[in-house]
Amino acid sequence: MTVKENIVTVLRHDDEAINRARHGLMRALINNMVIGVNQGFEKKLEINGVGFRVQQQGTDLKFNLGFSHDVIYKVPEDVKISIEQNVITVNSISKQRVGQVAAEIRSLKKPEPYKGKGIKYSDEHIIRKSGKSGKE
């Protein structure tokens, strides 16, 4: 790897398959670092369901997801969370951290296929099933 005049160049020694794969990986990781510092990364999650809510308590998130208890999620320090109605926005400079935190929040209550209740990504489409009667 060399840096000249604000251009990062990633080189490889030979054309073996493993070295080509690692070359592409390093290029993508460096590109994501540059994009993260300049623009940042963001994912949006939606909460669907009657009575499903989220509140911010200091740095933690308090979810009311239909369980007998409230679910508390501790937000990592390097991630910023904003809540608007039932839409949670996860921001950070690291693409990996944004995806990991969004996946952890989604795993608290995955969307179910019958009524679509749960936490889903804003661009995710839930394939709905008909119930026992087979009506649509």
Give a quick rundown of the structure.
The protein is of the alpha+beta class.
Molecular structure report:
The chain has helices at 17-38, 95-106; strands at residues 2-4, 7-9, 41-48, 53-57, 60-64, 71-74, 80-84, 87-92, 118-121. It has 136 residues and is of the alpha+beta class. A hairpin with a 6-residue loop joins strand 5 (60-64) and strand 6.
What share of residues is helical? Answer: 25-40%
Structural class designation: alpha+beta
Between the first and last Cα atoms, what is the distance in angstroms? 57 Å
Q: Strand order of the main beta sheet, please?
A: 7-8-3-9
- Can you tell me the residue ranges where pLDDT is under 50 for at least 5 consecutive residues? none
Which characteristics define this entry?
25% helix, 3-stranded antiparallel sheet, 136 residues, alpha+beta, 2 helices, 4-stranded antiparallel sheet
Layout of helices and strands:
Blueprint: E1 2-4, E2 7-9, H1 17-38, E3 41-48, E4 53-57, E5 60-64, E6 71-74, E7 80-84, E8 87-92, H2 95-106, E9 118-121
Antiparallel strand pairs: 1-2, 3-8, 3-9, 4-5, 5-6, 7-8
